[in-house]
Amino acid sequence: MAIATAPTAPVGKLARTWETAPGLYGVLATVDHKTIGKRYIVTALVFFLAGGIEAAFMRTQLIHSNVHLLDAEEYNQIFTMHGVTMLFLFASPILSGFSNYLWPLMIGARDMAFPRVNALSYWTFLLSGVFIYTSFLIGQAPDGGWFAYVPMTGRTYSPGLNIDFYALGLIFITISTTVGAVNFVVTFFRMRAPGMSLNRVPIIMWGTLSASVAIIFALPALSAACVMLYFDRRFGMHFFDAAEGGHPLLWQHLFWMFGHPWVYIIVLPAIGLASDMIPTFSRRPLAGYTFVALSTVTTAILGFGVWVHHMFATGLPMLATTFFSAASMMIAIPSGVSIFAWIATIWHGRPVFRTPFLFLIGFIVLFVIGGVSGVMTAAVPFDWQLTDNYFVVAHLHYVLIGINVFPVFAALYYWLPKMTGRMLSERYGRWVFWLMFIGANLAFFPMHISGMLGMPRRIYTYQAGLGWDTVNLITSVGAYVFALGVLLFLVDFFRSLSVGPEAGDNPWDAPTLEWSVSSPPPPYNFAVIPTVRSRHPLWEGRLDEEYHTLIGSGPVLDRGRETFGTSALDSDPFEILQMPEDSLWPLILAAMMTVTFYGLLFGVWWLAILGLVLVILSLAGWCWPKLVREDEMDLLPEEG
Amino acid sequence: MAMTSGSPAMFGTAGPAAHQIAVLGWVLTIISLAVLLVVSLILLVALFRQRAARADQPESVVIRPNGSIRLIVWGGIVVPAIILICALLFTLFVQSAVATPPATPVATIRIVGHRWWWQVIYTAQSPDQQVVTANEIHVPVGQPVRLELVSADVVHSFWVPKLAGKTDVIPGQQNTMWMQADKPGIYWGECAEYCGLQHTHMDLLVVAQSPADFRHWLDQQRQPPPPPTDPVTATGERVFTRQACAACHTVGGTPAMGTIGPDLTHIASRRTIAAGTLPNTPGNLAGWIANAQGIKPGNDMPTMSLPPGDLQALVAWLETLQ
């Protein structure tokens, strides 16, 4: 193991070792976490635009009473796909994208723990999204809402392929999310640079770790429910059929046991992103680091104890509902802790008002609004009035736009320069922020009122004279303003690629390790593996810290694709991991899964079985042992 | 819907259950707005309090962590916990208060959710005292009624915002709730759980009338309608019982015994047709019969192509079913 300082490190050799092969093979076979992260972000943004177009259709239909741009079936497909897209194909994958890109750079590693699994996670995400969207090609997109309540989604009342696309598509994307989560958990506990003990990791890591553990426990409920739904529909089973001893509430319990943790899964990593950006613009380390880290963990755990608040009106016993009511209110406390930690950071800091910071201020405000309206819906009797009306639509959009979209846009403005090497425009950024912030409030605040005026969710039109016209007009205008902000962001992004100023290594004077490398970073991330001594390695000098992180000198690890394996708590290095080469197997495996799912979708059993056999063969090919030379025996890869 | 008492807003309530919930709702709304206001103010102060003082410092300054824990503990834990516990206690109090009606219910009404209309059955000891109607519930003012909610097909949710919170209507189980109107009037109700294609058009009316009027209405609904008295309405009845209509609809006192669609024995006494989709006028009724699929696509009522004379006679007869 060679020790070197950065100028003497063999960067040419490292680059050759870690570079993705040129040409088509490299495009399809790459396992570079940075490429995969960027693909995640771009793909998720494309789905965000698709979901946004669906929203624009809905808001145009509802801009006034009795508008008939869409018929009932079209509207039902579009609102269902808006939910499925935003929740499964945007909100979660975009955060996976940021985590994939940033984690190794933040923790001084050269890749994620399982680079090939990482590639598999991306390809299955992409192909499951494409799978679900092909439903539009045959005019049978899912139309049962993202919650797909049985028996409406059973074969009797939904004989088309719509719900089969839904059930199979979700099982498919569950594979992507689950393998991604396993990768994050292992990376968190195994891949941190020497010295980066648990109390020194950026908060995004705590957020994504909490979310990943929640994914591992929550998604089986969804997969099981979708398998049951598919079996009910295809093979005439009766899991949800009350006439044959099944029960429709089984679906609701399973779905929300998954569904509520899912809300936290798609906000906790974003809360982490925000917690790592706010200190940069407050010019001081995060206040209450331990509080914020623990509140993300607490939220993820409590998130499993609140699912029944989606079912207060289903006639459950009062005692049960009161328990879940109490839990649903108390889960506000960890959020309050985080909010006041950010406020304390700003209070005792010196705020610098750049575009990402504007989005973060917006995020805090929207978070508070979504939080207090969540407490209102947690009150059982009041929820009997609010549930399934537009108040809940307002609440969930404040939560998801506030705690997912705003931190994500802050993160785009903040970290895109690291990815592309070019700054986005401050002038455009301010316009984008104000359009999105005003648009979101104009669109979603009036929805609280339309709900209180008795407007139910998921209606494709409404009559005049109910008092709903004005609030809906304001909502639609707000939605268009918001959309304008998103479009302006796209303009800014593409503009920045050619005319944006050079970012340099650390354009924000930020404290964490990813800003110590060039923008964009080299394929090997770090020429030498840093040894970390604090939470803010790049600010140590100015904070008069006693110990200093070693960034420019340290172990090189250049005998192949090498990085450190370190201990879970203190991050002491105890092995050198040999990371895998590029591989086509992840893509092949994902493609064979797609074949299987189309076979299951159309009930073409030979195709499904063929696909399954090919899946098994691909797994075998992936795991096939490589011949290892004698002198490489001590470098056996962790996984193939 | 000009025929109802204003918009279906959940505030401006007309019954004790909705009223107590509205009080809870206002309290929670005020607490929420106060929290939003206070947190926003603290945030604003945090953002701007040191602007002038530190404007001369270079951007590269990094401030050492100091005195933040008290703000987090008080603002993030202590104060929210106190507010939330108070809110929870008040919530539990209201929940227990609205759990049972203020008096013994004077009637039990069985409500069957269908895609996409409401069957309404006033239960009685003997079957001939039972009243079956659709999409319109009459209740006596100042007296609670008990509702039994069952579904004939998928999950629905029964909601009359001015009178009570919603209760889901779920196949395989019977949910119960109670409802009371304190003021005479007509209250808008709707299906609140997405139930498929025409979820939008699954509304109902609650007609609250004095107990005497309610008894009178119930007695009238128990009588079969008068037989046709003129050739046109007689033709109309013949069209109804001989065409497909009778396969799905019941009209008391006639051979029509269908159970798929709403009971039409007293259709002329109802204010809307097609579950609140249209006001019940002769023109709308004729339009509905001739073009049910155009008006509410996907519902079970087929579009009937009748000769114009037959359609007119049919509507004339239906108009006599008071």
Overall description:
The complex is a heterodimer of chains A (640) and B (322). Chain A is mainly α and 640 residues long. Chain A has three domains: 36-515, Cytochrome C Oxidase, Chain A; 527-580, no CATH class; 588-640, no CATH class. Chain A is built from 19 helices and four strands. Chain A has helices at residues 11-18, 23-29, 33-61, 72-107, 115-133, 162-190, 203-235, 248-265, 268-282, 289-302, 318-330, 332-347, 355-378, 380-386, 390-420, 426-452, 469-499, 585-602, 605-623; strands at 3-5, 553-555, 562-566, 573-578. A two-stranded antiparallel sheet of chain A has the order 1-2. In chain A, strand 3 (562-566) and strand 4 (573-578) form a beta hairpin. In chain A, helix 6 (162-190) packs antiparallel against helix 7 and helix 7 packs parallel to helix 10. The longest helix of chain A is centred in the N-terminal third of the chain and has 36 residues, at 72-107. The two termini of chain A are 23 Å apart. In chain B, helix 1 (16-48) packs antiparallel against helix 3 (69-99) and helix 5 (231-242) packs across helix 8. Chain B has two domains: 1-55 and 67-217, Sandwich (Immunoglobulin-like); 231-319, Immunoglobulin-like. In chain B, the strands form three sheets. A five-stranded mixed β-sheet of chain B has the order 3-2-1-5-8. In chain B, strands 4-10-9-6-7 form a five-stranded mixed β-sheet, covered by helices on one side. Chain B has a two-stranded antiparallel ribbon with strand order 11-12. The radius of gyration of chain B is 27 Å and the shape is elongated. Chain B is built from eight helices and twelve strands. With 322 residues, chain B is α+β, with helices and mostly antiparallel strands. Chains A and B meet through helix 4, helix 11, helix 12, helix 13 and helix 14 of A and helix 1, helix 3 and strand 9 of B.
